[in-house]
């Protein structure tokens, strides 16, 4: 019998493309404080961090109460945008993502999970909107952990599933995901279609792929290299 293997996914920028709502929501958060919004590149550069960590990085000159108001304004705007369009339009899957997820979920000794900077409420709404509430056995969200790249999310997922670190891999689009994986002692696979530049992932990733259809083979190679 094959050993259980855990495949952890980041969400925004890895499974779904939610950059439109992210940029629009951050713009509203800054406008609520009478500020100009950061550039698209700056906003996408903090995707993956918890909002409480990301906001001071984008607006370092403000005090904590202002950051807190901006976090709440962001959340309210994001919920409004998602409700207006539905998850499938506001956060569509990247090409072939759903097909590959179904393929991986059909392998008996593979367990799927997520480790995301989304809140519990945000992840629940996304999964429900895409009809995939039961796909991920372990779901780690920002409400219960320090922000990436702290390894808490991955370590908790390992503990919940009983999978050893050498039998787990983290898949994400940001350097925060790759650093988190390294800190937790698991393999790291970067994806080149997300919000950080592929070259920023290379120093921390075992490999970087550029087509979702290449993921199953890349996972096999990562684990094969450990033997």
How is this structure best described in words?
This protein has 227 residues and is α/β, with parallel strands linked by helices. The chain contains eleven helices and six strands. Strands 3-2-1-4-5-6 form a six-stranded parallel beta sheet, sandwiched between helices. Strand 5, helix 10 and strand 6 form a beta-alpha-beta unit. Helix 3 crosses helix 4. The longest helix is centred in the N-terminal third of the chain and has 22 residues. The two termini are 17 Å apart. The mean pLDDT is 93.
Number of DSSP-assigned strands: 6
Summed up, the helix count is 11
Largest sheet: 6 strands, parallel
In the sheet with the most strands, the strands line up as 3-2-1-4-5-6
What are the segments in which pLDDT stays under 50 over at least 5 consecutive residues?
Answer: none
Distance between the termini: 17 Å
Write down the oligomeric state.
Answer: single chain
């Amino acid at each position: 019998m094959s050993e259980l293997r855990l495949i952890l996914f980041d969400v925004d920028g890895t499974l779904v493309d939610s950059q439109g709502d992210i940029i629009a929501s951050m713009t509203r958060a800054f406008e609520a404080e009478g500020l100009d919004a950061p550039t698209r590149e700056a906003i996408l550069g903090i995707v993956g961090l918890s909002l409480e960590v990301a906001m001071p990085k984008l607006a370092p000159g403000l005090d904590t109460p202002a950051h807190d108001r901006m976090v709440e304004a962001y959340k309210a705007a994001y919920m409004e945008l998602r409700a207006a369009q539905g998850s499938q339009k506001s956060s569509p899957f990247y090409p072939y993502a759903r097909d590959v997820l179904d393929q991986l979920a059909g392998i008996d000794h593979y367990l799927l999970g997520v480790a995301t900077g989304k809140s519990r409420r945000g992840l629940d709404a996304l999964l429900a909107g895409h009809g995939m509430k039961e796909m991920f056995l372990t779901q780690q969200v920002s409400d219960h952990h320090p922000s990436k790249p702290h390894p808490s999310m991955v370590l908790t997922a390992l503990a919940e599933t009983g999978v050893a670190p050498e039998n787990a891999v983290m898949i994400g689009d940001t350097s925060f995901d790759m650093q988190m994986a390294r800190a937790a002692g698991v393999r790291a696979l970067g994806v080149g279609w997300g919000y950080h530049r592929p070259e920023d992932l290379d120093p921390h990733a075992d490999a970087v792929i550029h087509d979702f259809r290449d993921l199953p083979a890349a996972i096999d190679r990562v684990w094969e290299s450990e033997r």
